[in-house]
Amino acid sequence: MSLAPRAVLVHRRTEYEELLARHGTHGQAAFFLSSRGRSIDEVARRHERTRQALRDVAAAVPLTWRSTRVERADLDRFLFAPEDVVVVVGQDGLVANAAKYLSGQPVVGIDTDPGRNPGVLVRHRCADTAALLRAATAAGGTVEALTMVEAVADDTQRLVALNEIYLGPPGHQTARYRLAPDGDGSPGEAQASSGVLVGTGTGATGWLRSLWLERGSAVPLPAPCDPRLLWFVREAWPSPATGTSQVSGELGRGQGLRLTVESDRIVVFGDGMEADALELTWGQSVRLGISATALRLVV
């Protein structure tokens, strides 16, 4: 007998909850904000809107389904199952945070604060939840397959991301490595820089776009479902031992970018989740390319 679907509600702590965790009480948090010219009232109202949204979404889960909740900080320890329907309740960035831990489960994005969030990935309102859950499990339900980027190290460590993957030094030092197209057999160009960014069409509204604009790139930015990635080297440094001839490019399906580490430590993380990073050291290599897994966003 097949298992009933499970609704997994993904959320994160609100600003109000973070203030309470730091200051202990509402009064202490209010005093802290007032000393900086802010009022706690709006923070508390946004907190209540988020809590109410979670209650409304939970109430919309069919009675025959199973359900659970997971907080953003616990995503790397949560085991998603094939029959899950992931309901992200919060901001756009929370969808990206969850995406790297999924393997094809449908995702529903619920905006808890319409007008404050861009609503690129959290496109729906709480009142739409029941219909969206039915659509997520119905044959022929409408989903968008958003392209994701992956990094696969030579020791089989793997990391995927919805917006972008960053490879660079763990602090403010310089990263040293060799960069080359994957599979061309060349040793690659030795480079010293503040890191490399490889991004998708979903990430083209954020960090990737800022680099694209800074370079004045003639290559068009990809759309979220395009099987295409753009990559940029950040602040490459020319010297007698390091070059700057390969500082940007495009990757299609089946193409890859290979980076071989030539410094003590390079970290690889996706979508700002620095706490869940790969760590590479001297001589290790990593391949960047389009992931076989896409984010299935219910529309």
Automatic annotation (TrEMBL):
What sections of the protein cross the membrane?
Answer: none
Asked whether the keyword Zinc-finger is assigned, the reply is: no
Cross-referenced InterPro entries: NAD/diacylglycerol_kinase_sf
Alphabetized, the UniProt keywords read: Kinase, Transferase
State a single Gene Ontology molecular function: NAD+ kinase activity
Q: Which GO terms describe its biological process?
A: NAD+ metabolic process
Record protein name field: NAD(+)/NADH kinase
